[in-house]
Specification:
By secondary structure, this protein is α+β, with helices and mostly antiparallel strands. The chain is built from ten helices and 13 strands. The strands form two sheets. The protein has a seven-stranded mixed beta sheet, with helices on both faces. Strands 1-2-3-6-4-5 form a six-stranded mixed beta sheet, covered by helices on one side. The mean pLDDT is 95.
């Protein structure tokens, strides 16, 4: 048997490869693998399901991620996938695998964060599983949500002429992470030096304690706006916009000058000699929503708070491109998180 290395495929190609022969046996399964959540049709509405796995050393580092925040974030990243379908998350199950490095008190902290997120977002924790792990902490959360079938928004509905919005600042989580990693390195070399995190509350919160945009889903509902396509920005704007375009069979043109980046992130990018735009395009984990809106709703959306217009969906032959502030055009390529 030949051997193919995981990094030859990358995450998305690997998922495609492993799941290409998966059969659907039930007509209630109206959307399977490939979107932010799966959709199961019930009598009067649909149930949405999504799951995420967080591994110590891959997704989080307990040297700088407090367990309480980690529990909170683990819930948030799951809620975000249900919200990205324009649906309402309602229940979660939480499974943990822990090594004996962790005490009961440590796990209490993790659950305090989980409870805080559940109470704030009105989510019921309805089950899970607990087991030992040979090394480190593993958290797996499954989230269940609901929505009427005709209000579910998938990744594949974008059409040329649709406006593309994002719901908040991008790149902050990535720069928060760079800052934490830098201070960790300094601490490891000089344990007597205190971390210099400075006045960077916004970007640190972005990475350590993000929020899910439940408010946006409520706002869309209140204003009777049904987007054509939606995704949550977990892998990075480039990668996630490419998912929308690939699945919708379109191109897109976004403008550098329109991409919202907070000042704190701009300054931190400068400090790291990074281009803020690259951080916004390739850095993930901001958990904002990317929302495509058909032309007849442009006027309505323009007036809404938290909607940042970044560009337009185009015909597929135009490709997926970025127009720089100098008027140059660049093809956008996927540079999301590389897991392998
Ligand atoms: P997201 O970034 O929104 O969490 P992912 O990129 O993790 O989404 O997953 C994309 C799609 O592939 C989802 O529909 C997810 O359920 C599915 N998927 C991911 N990993 C697997 C797997 N090992 N087996 C089956 N489906 C998977
Ligand atoms: Mg998602």
């Amino acid at each position: 048997m030949s051997r193919t290395e995981l990094n030859e495929l990358g995450e998305f190609a690997l998922i495609d490869h492993l799941t290409q022969e998966v059969a659907i046996h039930h007509q209630e399964t109206i959307l399977g693998i490939g979107d932010d959540a799966a959709v199961i049709e019930n009598k009067d509405s649909c149930t949405l399901v999504s799951t995420d796995l967080l591994i110590e050393g891959i997704h989080f580092d307990l040297m700088y991620h407090p367990l309480k925040h980690l529990g909170y974030k683990a819930v948030i990243v799951n809620l975000s996938d249900i919200l990205a379908m324009n649906a309402v998350p309602k229940q979660i199950t939480v499974s943990v695998a822990v090594s004996n490095r962790f005490s009961v008190e440590a796990l209490e902290q993790l659950y305090e964060g989980i409870r805080t997120a559940c109470n704030l977002y009105k989510i019921d924790l309805v089950g899970g599983d607990t087991t030992a792990s040979p090394k480190g902490l593993i958290i797996s959360i499954t989230v269940i949500g609901t929505q009427q079938k005709d209000k579910i928004v998938k990744r594949n509905g974008a059409k040329p002429g649709d406006y593309i919005y994002v719901t908040g600042y991008l790149g902050g989580a990535y720069l928060g992470l760079q800052l934490l990693e830098r201070e960790k390195r300094i601490y490891q070399e000089h344990p007597d030096i205190q971390p210099q995190l400075g006045e960077n509350r916004e970007i640190l919160e972005r990475i350590l304690k993000p929020e899910a945009r439940m408010d946006i889903i409520r706002l869309l509902d209140k204003n009777h706006i049904l987007p054509s396509a939606m995704i949550d920005l977990s892998d990075g704007l480039s990668s996630d916009l490419l998912h929308i375009c690939k699945q919708s069979g379109t191109g897109a043109l976004i403008e550098e000058q329109n991409i919202p980046i907070q000042q704190e992130a701009q300054l931190m990018a400068l400090e790291f000699h990074l281009d803020p735009i690259t951080c916004a395009l390739s850095g993930g984990e901001d958990y904002e929503l990317l929302i495509c809106v058909p032309p007849d709703l442009h006027d309505k959306v323009k007036t809404l708070p938290s909607f940042y217009y970044i560009g337009e969906i185009t015909a597929p032959e135009n490709g997926v491109r970025l127009k720089t502030t100098h008027g140059n055009f660049h093809n956008i390529t996927a540079q999301g998180w590389k897991h392998f």
